[in-house]
Write a structure and sequence with these properties.
393 residues; alpha+beta; Aminopeptidase; Alpha-Beta Plaits; 11 helices; Peptidase_M20; zinc; Peptidase_M20A
Length: 393
């Protein structure tokens, strides 16, 4: 697709990455573990302050149930109407407070390391800064722009899902600056859904030497379920299963009367999800005199590459070509808040953040060389009427 786009869209070489990197590092150096709403508020307060004096509506959703709050920024200058463009990211990380003291931010060539920098403070910062700069310059976008920052994504978005779905229903298109995966320029156009389950077996304890036959081993029961569940990886092409934790027993000479496992399930489509969830919840004990309790369910629905997603991706390819930026797509087993929006039938493009690697790992980092290209792409997506017409109108 070769098209003419607006001539005032800045190319990536016109964007200075240095101040953007400083802003990203500032966010990283404000630690925001999911279980510390007080620290998350420090970051969200700082973000709000950066919009002081600008014509941007700020709405704070208070945290609850031990989770941090949420921040909604809406830029809709006079004369702009219609369904908004929604940037949607999170600011919470998996890293405990104090991690920075052990692993401070550092740069090695093109790589900048820091806890939470890749997943996903770099992307969330770029989306936020894109809208701040647009508002500060008094630019008039084709439609309103919303930036949504969530503080409990890493623990399942349990308190923020209602807000996410409220904003997604209103939006014309949803852009998620989660980290880019694969080669530079790659975006995400599909993600598996995610379900979690707990299986708890209750047996009968007994002396392993003198009364073995009187016992009913909960570990033996759970072991059989582990083998059955893991074997589904060979028979269910649209799903994957991982038994991630195992616990049970007290001593080697006691028949164990309690054992438990936790299971992670990823699934590509809702019909498969519904069938497998029902089968999981309907599991029955194999052994005699064993009680089996199964709990759990779907946390995030699958993000399917729908015709709406395909259209948005094709429009992004055309825009990237105009900006002379690389562009490719990938699907992921990991989930994001984009799953919720895609399940509502919205056009969603994910993975718009910086390239790098090491999400949730000690070597977490971004590539500085991808900051300016991603900033240019986000600005162009927010400001180009041509792109938005191709994507949704």
């Amino acid at each position: 697709m070769t098209l003419s786009f607006e001539s005032d869209l800045p190319p990536s070489e016109a964007i200075d990455a240095a101040p953007l990197l400083r802003g990203i590092v500032d966010w990283v150096e404000m630690e925001t573990p999911s279980d510390r709403p007080d620290l998350i508020d420090v970051l969200l307060d700082s973000v709000e302050a950066s919009f002081e004096g600008l014509p941007v509506q700020r709405r704070r959703v208070p945290g609850r149930d031990g989770c941090g709050g949420q921040l909604i920024l809406r830029y809709a200058p006079a004369g702009v109407s219609g369904a908004p463009l929604l940037f949607m990211g999170h600011v919470d990380t998996v890293w405990d407070a104090g991690t920075l003291a052990e692993r401070p931010v550092r740069r090695e060539g093109d790589q900048v390391f820091g806890p939470g920098i890749f997943d996903m403070k770099a992307g969330s910062y770029l989306a936020t800064e894109t809208v701040r700069r647009i508002a500060a310059a008094g630019l008039i976008p084709p439609r309103p722009i919303i930036v949504y920052l969530n503080a409990d994504e890493e623990i399942g978005s349990l308190t923020s899902r209602d807000t996410i779905e409220e904003l997604a229903r209103e939006a014309a298109l949803v852009l998620v600056p989660e980290p880019s995966v694969g080669a530079a320029g790659t975006v995400v156009t599909a993600r598996k859904g995610w379900a979690r389950f707990s299986l708890v077996a209750q047996g009968v304890s007994a002396h392993a030497g003198g009364n073995l036959a009187d016992g009913r081993s909960a570990i033996r029961e759970i072991a059989q379920h582990i083998l059955q569940i893991e074997s589904l990886n060979d028979t269910e092409p649209a799903a994957s299963f991982n038994v991630g934790t195992v616990a049970g027993g007290t001593r080697a000479n006691v028949v164990p009367d309690h054992a438990a496992i936790e299971i992670d399930m990823r699934v590509e489509d809702m019909p498969t999800a519904e069938r497998l969830i029902a089968e999981m919840l309907d599991r029955r004990a194999v052994g005699k005199d064993i009680a089996l309790h199964v709990s759990g369910g779907l946390n995030r629905p699958p993000f399917v590459r729908s015709p709406a997603v395909h259209r948005l991706y094709e429009a992004t390819c055309a825009l990237a070509k105009y900006l002379k930026l690389p562009m490719a797509e990938a699907s992921r087993g990991g989930v994001s808040d984009g799953n919720f929006a895609a399940a509502l039938g919205k056009p969603v493009l994910d993975g718009l953040g910086c390239s790098g690697g090491g999400a949730h790992a000690l070597h977490e980092h971004i590539l500085v060389s991808t900051i300016a290209p991603r900033a240019a792409l986000m600005h162009a997506m927010a400001m180009s009427k041509t792109f938005q017409t191709l994507a949704v109108d």
